[in-house]
């Protein structure tokens, strides 16, 4: 009986981390590599990159991880379920380790962000360690995105690049100010590209997705990537 239960647990665990019936034999590790290549192909015509942004890799990793998750066609809709899968995929991305240690998810905070993203955005910025000037800068940037997103991606991209250039050149901002703002901006730039340029429109950016990036960036850039994906997926599944 014990052997049977052990076998059942193994089977259920395997099913939890499998994709659809068509690709159940593919491991998440293989998908991470494959989707990273596919994402790179998308960039050939119009790249979301900005080499001038030191934290540009945060946005690229965001898109790679998101692509893997969406390709698996998961039907999970609870915070613990989605968080577990995102963490599992993230653990296989070596580049993410460069950005810092991903902090544990506060499920209550995530739910509050999904329910009231604008309020949580204002709180995240106000309670951050940034200087007042940087807080105002990031708040204005997040507000501007709502106006920019109606344009083609090429226009949005140029607006974001110009914004990032001004942040990089600002001598009043501390290194921490710049890390938080540029990490957030990188994720916004890449996630907007993902939504605008994918042929299959199965992902849309949202205020919640961006708020997750800000909340995570206050801690470190790795947490920004995961919280942005998690919050975005939860809103996407509503």
TrEMBL record:
Keywords (alphabetical) are: Signal
Q: Which PROSITE patterns match?
A: PROKAR_LIPOPROTEIN (PS51257)
Signal peptide annotation = 1-23
Q: What is this protein called?
A: Lipoprotein
The organism encoding this protein is: Flavobacterium chungangense
The upper taxonomy is: Bacteria, Pseudomonadati, Bacteroidota, Flavobacteriia, Flavobacteriales
């Amino acid at each position: 009986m014990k052997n049977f239960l052990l076998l059942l647990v193994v089977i259920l665990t395997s099913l939890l981390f499998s994709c659809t019936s068509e690709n159940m034999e593919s491991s998440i590790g293989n998908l991470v590599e494959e989707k990273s290549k596919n994402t790179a192909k998308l960039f050939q015509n119009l790249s979301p990159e900005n080499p001038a942004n030191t934290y540009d890799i945060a946005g690229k990793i965001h898109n790679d991880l998101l692509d893997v998750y969406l390709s698996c066609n998961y039907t999970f809709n609870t915070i613990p379920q989605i968080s577990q899968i995102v963490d599992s995929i993230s653990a296989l991305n070596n580049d993410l380790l460069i950005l810092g240690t991903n902090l544990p998810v506060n499920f209550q905070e995530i739910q509050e962000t999904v329910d009231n993203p604008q309020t949580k955005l204002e709180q995240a910025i106000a309670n951050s360690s940034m200087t007042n000037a940087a807080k105002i800068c990031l708040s204005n940037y997040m507000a501007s995105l709502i106006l920019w997103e109606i344009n083609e991606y090429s226009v949005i991209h140029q607006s974001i690049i110009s914004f990032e250039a001004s942040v990089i050149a600002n001598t009043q901002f501390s290194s921490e100010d710049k890390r938080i703002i540029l990490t957030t901006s990188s994720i916004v730039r890449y996630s907007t590209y993902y939504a605008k340029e994918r042929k299959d429109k199965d992902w849309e950016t949202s205020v919640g997705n961006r708020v997750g990036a800000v909340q995570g960036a206050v801690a470190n850039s790795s947490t920004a990537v995961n919280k942005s994906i998690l919050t975005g997926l939860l809103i996407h599944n509503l």
